[in-house]
Design brief:
The protein is α/β, with parallel strands linked by helices. The chain has a single domain, classed as Alpha-Beta Barrel (TIM Barrel), CATH 3.20.20. The protein contains ten helices and eight strands. It has an eight-stranded parallel beta barrel with strand order 1-2-3-4-5-6-7-8, surrounded by six helices. The longest helix has 19 residues. The chain starts with a strand and ends with a helix. 44% of the residues are buried.
Length: 247
């Protein structure tokens, strides 16, 4: 049985004060949640949000990480720094990192290994663009991303992976994949995971991401291979994200 996992990706939104205020407002709304929940704020808000979430069932996540332990990498943050700040999760290979900042699968694979080495767990994002979908290349693109991004998962850690299928054309556009369309991609990903990780594949959670809202969450989450959601815009409001958690 895979425990449902809802993660908020705040992207470049919310000050430290706003993050703390969100926690105060949000926590009472989901106090009874049986699902796993995490929030990924911008780096400067990590510590304060971590304190605000302490003792609650909500985990702290980072939106990005570098794969090296330290060094001359201006603007980057090391895995151990995120662990020290209280992160349990790190979003790796988000499409905005891939497309706006040029991250390639090999770099993402090294990040995945580094996140595990630092005692955290990655949420690894994959997904096709609209052009790729219209060219009938969705599965081929996903396969390439999975092959590349999951090339260095340390042995014994496969079941701790979380994947996020996020079709790029659905992110921030209000255009959600249909539940059937999303399930089809998730089933393909599950099949790939089975080929790569054998029995552990059944334990790996696959989140759907891309314009998940309170109104469409329930039918997406009802699909057999959709084990949670990675939520951007709709996670910025406490009641909206709480409604998705409760969906
Ligand atoms: P969205 O973003 O929910 O705003 O579409 C999802 C994501 O990019 O993780």
């Amino acid at each position: 049985m895979r425990r449902r996992f809802l993660a908020a990706n705040w992207k470049m939104h919310k000050s430290i004060a706003e993050a703390v205020a969100f926690a105060k407002d949000f926590l009472p709304r989901i106090a009874w949640a049986e699902h796993e929940v995490a929030i990924a704020p911008p780096f400067p808000a990590l510590s304060a949000l971590g304190h605000a979430l302490a003792g609650s069932p909500v985990a702290l996540a980072a939106q990005n990480v570098h794969d090296e332990a330290q060094g001359a990498f201006t603007g980057e943050v090391a895995p151990s720094m995120l662990a020290e700040a209280g992160c349990q999760w790190v979003i790796v290979g988000h499409s905005e990192r891939r497309h706006l900042f040029g991250e390639r699968d090999a770099f993402i694979a090294r990040k995945v290994a580094a996140v595990f080495a630092a005692g955290m767990r990655p949420i690894v994002c994959v997904g096709e663009t609209l052009d790729e979908r219209e060219a009938g290349r969705t599965f081929a693109v996903l396969e390439t991303q999975l092959d590349g991004s999951l090339a260095d998962v340390p042995s014994g850690h496969a079941a701790d992976l979380v994947l996020a299928y996020e079709p790029v054309w659905a992110i921030g556009t209000g255009r959600t994949a249909t539940p059937d369309g999303a399930q089809e991609a998730h089933a393909m990903i599950r099949g790939w995971l089975r080929g790569r990780f054998a029995d552990d594949a059944g334990a790996i959670r696959i989140q759907y991401g891309g314009s998940v809202k309170p109104d469409n969450a329930a039918e997406l989450l009802a699909q057999p291979d959709i084990d949670g959601a990675l939520v951007g815009g709709a996670s910025l409001d406490p009641e909206s994200f709480a409604r998705i958690v409760r969906a």
